[in-house]
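#lab-general

N.A. 3:47 PM
ok so I finally got the sequence cleaned up, no stray characters, all 442 residues accounted for. can someone with queue access submit it? mine expired

B.Y. 3:52 PM
send it over

N.A. 3:53 PM
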Amino acid sequence: MSYTLTQDQIDDSDTMAAGADIPNFSKAGTGKTLVTMEAIRKTGAQRGLILGPMVSLTMWKEELESWLGCTAQILHGQNKVIKENPDFVITTYDTATRSILPYLYKHFDGGVLVNDESQYLRTHTSKRSQAVFGRDHDGDGGLMEKFDQVWNLSGNPIMRHSDDLWAQIRPLHPAVMQKYHSLDYDEYVANFCVRQRRQYNPRMAPVMAIVASRNEVMLNRMLYEDIGAVRRLEAPDLPPLRERVMSMPITGLSPKWGKLISKMTHEQVIMMLSADGDDDNDLQKAWQAVSLAKVKTLSEYIADSSLNGPVLVGVWNSNVREAYLEELRERHGKVFRTVHGGTSRAARDKIKDEFNEGSIDGIVGQMAAMGVSWNLQKSSSHVVIAQTHYSPGVIEQFYKRVFRYGQKNPVQLDHALGDHPVDLAIYKLMRQKEGSAEKVLD
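B.Y. 4:20 PM
back already:
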C-alpha cells in the first residue's frame, strides 16, 4: 500500500521520534497510525509491542508490514504464543493483561510500546492500566519499563471529565506532573476536577463524584507547553463537514418522561444513562423509548439517502439497532449490515470491504463497537447519528470513520433528535461537555 505523508504528518513523526514519550492526541482521521509508523522508522527501532482494541489488530499488522517491511504477529484468543520471533507483537489490552503479561514482560527489552486508543487506559485503578504503567503508575513493574519509547495515541483522551487524562500522562511525565502538584491522583483531581456529593438513584447511597472539569486552560498549558503533546484537529485538505440537527416528531409517549427529565440536573442525566448494569432505570427506558419512536420516520430518510451511496448509521442500544435493521431490510428492501460488540474480526473485515466497495446500502453500527480503526471513507460521505449520546467523544469517534484522511467528498453528518425533552437534554449535555474538552485539548 502506497502513501504520501503530508508535511504536518512528517513534522509530527519528527516530534514523536525525538524522544520524551510524546503523546499523539490528534483527532480521529488525521493519520496517527501513519505518523506513528514513520516515527518508528525514524527511531530505528527494530522491535515493538502494539496494544489496542481488537478491531485495530489487523490494520496494525497490515500497515506495519507494508510501511516498515517488518514481520508482525497478532496475539488473540487461542493464539497466545509468540512464534518465529516477529519484529512486532500486536494484541489487545485485555489479552496483554491476562496470562500472557509475564510472557510479554520477558520477551521485550527495548524497542517501542504503542498504546493505541489510550483512552482504554484512562481508569487508573483498572488492571489494564496498571499492567501497562505499573501499580502506582510510576512505570515500576509495568510493561512500559521494558521499552525505550512509549507513545499514547488517542483522538479522544477525555471521554468524560479531565480525570481521564491522569493515567495517560502521569507515568510518562512525572516531572511535569510534579510541577503542577498533580503527581498523586487525588491531588490532580483537586486541581482539575469538581467533586460533589451526589445521590443519583434512591437505591444508591450518596457518593463523592467527579461532576465537571476545571482549570482547563492550565491543563492545556501542561499538555502543550510542558509535555509538548501532538494535536491535529483535522486532516489537511479535508472537504467540508456539513453538520445539521434533524428534529423528528415523537408521539404516543407517556408525559411522565418529560416530567422526569425536567427535575434532573445534567449530571444526573449522565450518571443514570451510564449506570453499569442498570438498564431498568427510568431514564434508560425513556432514552430507548424515544429512540425507538424515531425508527420508522428516520428509516425512510436513510433508505432514500442510500441511493447516493452507503450510509453509516450510529446507535447505542441493541434493541434500537435491531429495529432499524428490520425496518430498513423488511420495509425498504435495503441491504444493511450490522456491527456490534459480538461481531467477529472476520465478519468486521468482510463488512468493511462491502461498505467500501459500495456493494451494500449501509451499516447500522453500535457506536461503542465502531469508534476506532474503521476506515470507511472510500465510498461513503453520509453519517446519521440515529441515537444521540452524552459523550462527544463517542459521537466524534464514530463519524470520523467517514470524515477522515483520504475522504474526497463533502461529508453530511445528521444528528436525528426526537422532539422530546430526553433527546434534547442528552444532546445539550453532549455539546456542553464538548466545549469543556476543547478548552483542554484544542
